[in-house]
Design goal:
Blueprint (H helix, E strand, L loop, with lengths): L1 H6 L2 H8 L12 E7 L4 E10 L2 E10 L2 H14 L4 H15 L22 H18 L4 E4 L2
Parallel strand pairs: 1-4
Antiparallel strand pairs: 1-2, 2-3
Helix pairs in contact: 2-3, 3-5, 4-5
The protein binds zinc ion (ZN).
Zinc ion (ZN) binds next to α3.
């Protein structure tokens, strides 16, 4: 069970217990819905995109600790980024769950999710919010399934 304990690192526990940006903003202009049927994770992602920048990011939904923590961290990290930088961050996150670490103070929190690559089912939990982010950036109001 030590692998599983490693999976639920401090960052993940913290974000799953006290998710950031867990709300529905009144003034969002992008919405995408993510669903991971393998685990039952569901989330609605709300973005407010203004002048090519993610002015606000928030989510609501229900899911396992990994998916909730991932959505919480994602919304925290993309807020304030340009759309292009948000897409780059998606690529970085994918690199992390594929087994490549990322460096840099601002990105190191992503490495908390590196352990999920040992658990293919959990990879879908971890990446759900990020795929939903891209869908929302692409125009939103889309249902994203991880399969
Ligand atoms: Zn899950």
């Amino acid at each position: 069970m030590s692998d599983l304990r490693e999976l639920y690192q401090e960052v993940i526990l913290d974000h799953s217990k006290r998710p950031r940006n867990f709300r529905q903003p009144a003034d969002s202009n992008r919405l995408a819905v993510g669903h991971n049927p393998l685990c039952g994770d569901k989330l609605n992602l709300f973005l407010k995109v203004e002048g090519g920048r993610v002015a606000d990011a928030a989510f609501q939904g229900s899911g396992c600790a990994i998916s909730t923590a991932s959505a919480s961290l994602m919304t925290e990290m993309v807020k304030g980024l340009s759309e292009a930088d948000a897409r780059t961050l998606f690529d970085r996150f994918h690199a992390v769950v594929a087994g490549e670490g990322v460096a840099g103070e601002e990105l190191e929190r992503l490495n908390a999710f590196a352990g999920v690559r040992e658990f293919p089912v959990r990879v879908k939990c971890a990446t759900l919010a990020w795929h939903t982010l891209i869908a929302a950036l692409n125009g939103g109001r889309r249902l994203v399934k991880t399969e």
